[in-house]
Amino acid sequence: MTDENPISRLDEIGRKALEALANVSEASDLQRWKTENLGRSAPVMEIFSHLTGLEAAMRPVVGQAANRLKQQLEAAYAEREAGVKTAALQNSLETEKLDISLPGRVPPTGRLHPITQTLRQIIEVFSGMGFQVYRSREVETDEFSFGLLNIPPYHPARDMWDTFHTTNPGVVLRPHTSPGQIHVMRKFCPEPIRAILPGMCYRYEQMDARHESQLMQVEVLVVGRNISLANLKGTLQEFARGMFGAEVRTRFRPSYFPFTEPSGDVEIECFICGGKGCRVCSQTGWLEILGCGMVHPTVLQNGGYDPEVYSGFAAGMGVERITMLRHRVEEIRYFYGNDARFLEQF
Predict the structure, then answer these.
(1) Which of 16, 103, 192, 324 is the most exposed place for a label (fewest CB within 10 A)?
(2) What are phi and psi of 255, to 5 degrees?
(3) Cα–Cα distance between 172 and 163 in angstroms, integer?
(4) Which element (helix H / strand E) includes 166?
């Protein structure tokens, strides 16, 4: 340190720094001032580094004076910083235009999955005909999945379902919603039943454009006195009209299911080609939407109903298939791929 009086030197440093601060009006200049006057190489900081060169008696006096100056400069900087920010805000309000008529941004909202949309419409159509929703379990026993549905062990009809078996013998992931028929019959017997049973099913299948290892199904069950095939046809025709339009044409074709007798498939006229035949309907002019039939007497008996007194009909449909038909989707895996570009179209 020079022979100059350190106290006088501190006074000079403070005077010049405060004068320079008074002329600062921009944020960039303010930051530069802070670096020059409060940074590690600032003059006031150099005073601290030269304290060891002073006489012992002068060291505390100069050190205290340097601390006071540093605190003074910091306080002045904080005050000036607030003033610069206020001035910048005021200038922004005066010079920049704010269009207060611009509508606010609406936060994005979620939407129902296309399978859920179709399922809700199916429920709505059947609810309008007096059906109630009943849900059954997804982890099921072999007995309810097959045995009580007139499919005993080693029956060839079991090959219709590629079932997921658990490590617990006799327990499976349900391959169809038909086990719910037994549950609902045993719960409400001997009362008449008019119910639909929606739920997820699981099958060990090779996944392709038409098949998935999981699928949503809806089971339809009616049990009561004097329930006939005419009731089945009328109900399912009304359902087809509710889902595909009042002008839709339907037809019933014989089929086979072990838990119904007689059994059939319900088809609607292809709405792509108008029944003329195209690639979507495999040139037949018709699109299958569900399977159905009169409840087999053995199934009625297993549900607790006397087949000599009661009769009923059942139907089952895949929600994914109906969704694909309604929206002309050719790849079932799109529904569970979680691609927002696909899902946002519905």
Answers:
(1) 103
(2) -150, -170
(3) 7
(4) none
Which tens digit of pLDDT belongs to each residue from 199-233? 999 988 776 666 678 889 999 999 999 999 999 99
Residues 262 and 293: their CA atoms lie apart, in Å, by 6
Decide: 249 and 239 in contact? Cβ < 8 Å.
Answer: no
Does residue 101 lie in a domain region? no
Mind listing the pLDDT tens digit for each residue in 302-332?
999 999 999 999 999 999 989 988 888 888 8
- Return the pLDDT at 209: 62
Residue 296's closest CA among 141, 149, 145? 149
Whether the Cβ atoms of residue 24 and residue 39 lie closer than 8 Å to each other: no
- Pairwise CA distance, residues 10 & 5, whole Å: 9
Two tokens, residue 112: 């129902």
Residue numbers of the domain that contains 139: 114-343
pTM: 0.67
- d(CA 329, CA 106) in angstroms, rounded, equals 30
Alpha-helical regions (H) of the chain: 6-22, 27-38, 43-49, 58-95, 114-127, 142-145, 179-188, 229-244, 297-302, 319-327, 340-343
- Within a domain: residue 201? yes
Same domain, yes or no, for 88 and 150? Answer: no
Residue 261 has pLDDT above 80, yes or no: yes
Residue 134 lies in a domain: yes
The pLDDT tens digits for 27-44 are: 778 888 888 888 877 787
SS3 164: strand
Residue 225: CB atoms within 10 A of its CB come to 9
pLDDT tens for 119-177 read 999 999 999 999 999 999 999 999 999 999 999 888 887 777 788 889 999 999 999 99
Q: If you write DSSP's letter for every residue of 223-266 in order, what string do you get?
A: EETT--HHHHHHHHHHHHHHHH-TT--EEEEEE--TTEEEEEEE
DSSP label at residue 309: T
